[in-house]
Amino acid sequence: MIIILKPAASESEIAMLRGELAGRGLAVQEIQGESTFMLGLAGDTSMLSEDSFMRHEFVERVMKVSEPYKLAGRRFHPQDSVYDVAGRRIGGGAFCVMAGPCSVETEEQVLSIARDVKNSGADFLRGGAFKPRSSPYSFQGLGLDGLELLKIAREKTGLPIVTEIMSQEHADVFRAEVDIIQVGARNMQNFPLLKDVGRLGRPVLLKRGLSSTIDEMLMAADYILTSGSSPVILCERGIRTFETATRNTLDLSAIPVIKKKSHLPVIVDPSHGTGYWDLVFPMSLAAVAAGADGLMIEVHNQPANALCDGQQSITPFLFDRLMRKIERLHDAMADN
Length: 336
Prior knowledge:
Blueprint: E1 2-5, H1 11-23, E2 27-32, E3 37-42, H2 50-54, E4 59-63, E5 83-85, E6 88-90, E7 96-100, H3 107-119, E8 124-126, H4 144-157, E9 161-164, H5 171-177, E10 180-183, H6 191-198, E11 204-207, H7 214-225, E12 232-236, H8 254-261, E13 266-268, H9 270-274, H10 277-290, E14 294-298, H11 316-335
Parallel strand pairs: 7-8, 7-14, 8-9, 9-10, 10-11, 11-12, 12-13, 13-14
Antiparallel strand pairs: 1-3, 1-4, 2-3, 5-6
Helix pairs in contact: 3-4, 6-7, 10-11
C-alpha cells in the first residue's frame, strides 16, 4: 500500500501518520517523487481500509500495491540501490568480483588464494567456513576455525570477506566479523534465519533457491529488508531443471528481469550455476553482457585436491586471464 500525501502536508502531520502506521505493526518507507511525497507500507495490509487514511486532510490518495514484495520492488524505490562495503561499491554501474575457494581448508591455502585473486583485481574474498552439503558424509567445512582463517587473510591482504551463515546461533559472531553475510540457496526460505540476519545491520548476499522463482527470491529479500537495516545483494546461482549436462541451469535472463522488478544489485555465480570450471569463462562474460553488477567465482590453487567443488573451481592463472576479459567487456558495455 502507498499513501500519497498532499504537498501542504506538514512534518508534524507526517510524523503523526508514521506513528499511527508503526502502531499497526507496519514498516514505513518514505518515497520522494518529482512532485509528490509518499509513504510505502510493508507488512500485512490486508485488513486496512483505504478510507481509514483518507480521513486525514493531508492525504491525497491511497494505492494498493499488487506485488507480493514491497521493499525489494521498484515501486517504492525507483532508483538503483548502491552500497559501499568496506570502500567497495556494489551496484549503480560499478562491477564487483568476489573470488576465492568454495571451502576454507588451511591458512596457507586461503592466504595464497587471497593474495592471487587480489593481485588479479578481485574486490572481495569469498570462502566457505560452514558448508551445506547434500551428503552428510561430505566435508562440512571448518566452522568457526575457518572463519578465523578468513580473518587472517583479510588482515594480510585487505580484502573484505564474504562467507555463508548456516545457523542463527552464529548471528552475533557474523555481525562482528564478516563484511558480507551470505545466505545460501538452501536457506533462501529459512525465514527465521532471514529475519535474524536482517537485524544485524550487515550487508547480506541472498542466493536464489535451488527451485525458486524470481518473485520468491524477492519476497525472501523482503523478509530481510523488513527486519532491519541490512542492505541486500541478490545472487543468481542457477536453478534445478531437467537438464543434466550442467550441475544447474544458470538463468541469465533473471538479471534483466530482476533489474526490471527490483532496485537491488544482482550478481551471478557461474561456478555453482554450471558446475564445471570450463564453463565459468563463457558464463561470466555472458553475465557481464546481460548487465550483472558483479560475479562470485570459485578459485582454488589445486582444484584436483580441493575438499569441496574442485570440478567447478578455476586456478588463479585462469582467474587472472578471466579478469582481463571481464575488464575489457565491462568497459565496452559502459561505452555503449
